[in-house]
Amino acid sequence: MKCEEIRVLIPDYLSETLDQQVKSRIDEHTLSCADCRREIDALALVWSKMEGLSEEEPGPAIRTRFYTMLEAYKHGVENAPQRPSMFERLNERLRVWWPRQPVFQFCVTAIFLIVGLTIGLRVNTVSRSTGELERLNKEMTEMRQLVTLSLLNQPIASDRLRGVFMSRDIPEPDDRYLAALVTTLNSDPNVSVRLAAVDALQRFSDSSDVRTDLVASLPRQTSPLVQISLIDTLVRLREKRAVDAFKIIAENPRSIEPVKKRAKMGLDTIY
Amino acid sequence: MSDDHQLMISVRDGETEKLGKLFEAHHKRLYNFFLHQTGSRQTSEDLVVDVFLRILKYRHTYKDEGSFSAWMYTIARHTRIDYYKEHNDQSEFMEEPDTLTSNVPDPGEEYENMDDIILLRKAMAELPEDRREVILMSRFNHMPYREIGEVLGCTVGAVKVRIYRAMKDLAERYFRLAGEKSYEMRRN
After folding, report:
1. Is the pLDDT of residue B92 over 60?
2. Does any domain span residue A91?
3. By CA distance, what is B123's nearest residue in A?
4. In chain A, how many domains are there?
5. B148 Cβ contact list (under 8 Å, min separation 6)
6. Quick one: A94 and A165 in the same domain?
7. Is there a contact between A52 and B52 if contact means CB atoms under 8 Å apart?
8. Which of A15, A59, A106, A213 is 20 to 30 Å from B35 at the Cα level?
9. pLDDT 10s digits, A93-142
């Protein structure tokens, strides 16, 4: 065996996982090769000293934190729709645009009708102003917002969740729509819907008003999952106005430990 | 197939409460994996909880033919990398390596051993990240080469070479700190 081959086998040699034949060949080699013998001796010394490095027990809080997280996940996120197959996702995506209630179905049909008419007019009319198309686009956005606002007020949580998810398709929502999302964040009884509202509002965080609403919402939240999501969002936004809210949570004896910790980490990051 | 693998398949298929058994089986080793890398108990606990949260979050990506240990340590690596990215400077989390514990029963009577262990911890802390983690996975977590290869994305042969180089690097740093001659010096 060559020295290079021997040296790569040293860890196995020291952990005694080599078969006897290979081990004997290494022993034979080291009788005549002083370099390899020195190398094995030196690594063996360090190898044996590594036994002295103990495995430390983590603190008892880690178990509490894990089970709190697991419970929160089970009750919160798992109530949200499970990850569907590609076909179901496509189906779901299309279904979002086809509401159950006849009045919304009518609205959607009207949107398509307007779009169809617009395209038809543009094809048949040589000189139509682009301003008209913009107006129609605006009308479509308003119509989407109307449908979404109505969904946010539905009694079934999955409908409200759909309403929040539809915000992805509204690039420039108006104040009324943002206010409805904030109301959902502050008062929706379902944790999954409130969590989705945090994500939705985060997309519009360029607006100072939205950031103000996110800060104001934090002390109102009682679900640890929503609190953590909000804290993470405000930290990502480097929102200094959240400092007081973080302090309140960090010092509140009723806050659970993972949330307190997150708030303290948030304070460290923002300062 | 291992029990861990079967448990993870159950977790993936919706029985999330079974993650508790995987946590009980692995959290201590995972905690020490992070502790040797960060030197911070608090950070290590955070990272362990974060790993299990990610396991829940990405459970649908666990494959039928997978190895739970390799998958978990792959997630653990990414969790640590993300954590450092988020906090920019990893040095701010490092505690003095000699504040960590050792297996020496009575430090008062075992000064020499304690010194050795402190030196070894310092040498470990000095190692480049990729070398330290390969030692942790092989020497401390006793992971098979195949699983380490899965985590690092390399062959078993490459894993063996990496472990040897990491051990050699560790030994050189240790002897330098101990004031002894390095390999090269010893040879002359």
Report:
1. no
2. yes
3. A46
4. 2
5. B70, B134, B137, B138, B159, B163
6. yes
7. no
8. A15
9. 776 666 667 777 777 788 888 888 888 887 766 555 666 667 777 777 77
The C-alpha of B102 sits at a distance from chain A's nearest C-alpha, in angstroms, of 5
Mean per-residue pLDDT for A70-84?
67
How many contacts (CB atoms, under 8 Å) link A and B? 118
Residue type, A84: P
Residue A53 to residue B60, Cβ atoms within 8 A: no
ipTM exceeding 0.85, yes/no: no
Nearest CB neighbour to A69, from listed B14, B53, B160: B53
Residue where a domain terminates, one of A169, A204, A238: A169
Question: Would you call A74 and B16 a contact, using CB atoms and an 8 Å cutoff?
Answer: yes
- First and final CA of chain A: distance in angstroms? 61
A261 within 8 A of A64, measured Cβ to Cβ: no
- With respect to residue A236, please indicate whether it lies within any of the assigned structural domains: no
Residue found under tokens 């402190």: B118
Considering only the beta carbons, identify the residue of B36, B101, B120 that sits closest to A49: B120
What pTM value is reported for the model? 0.53
Q: Clarify whether residues A32 and A90 are in a common domain.
A: no
Measure in Å the smallest separation between the Cα of A253 and chain B Cα atoms: 20
Integer Cα distance of B141 and A42 in angstroms:
22
Write down all domains in chain B, each with its CATH number in brackets: 1-95 (1.10.1740.10), 105-188 (1.10.10.10)
Predicted confidence (pLDDT) per residue in A44-55, tens digit: 998 888 887 778
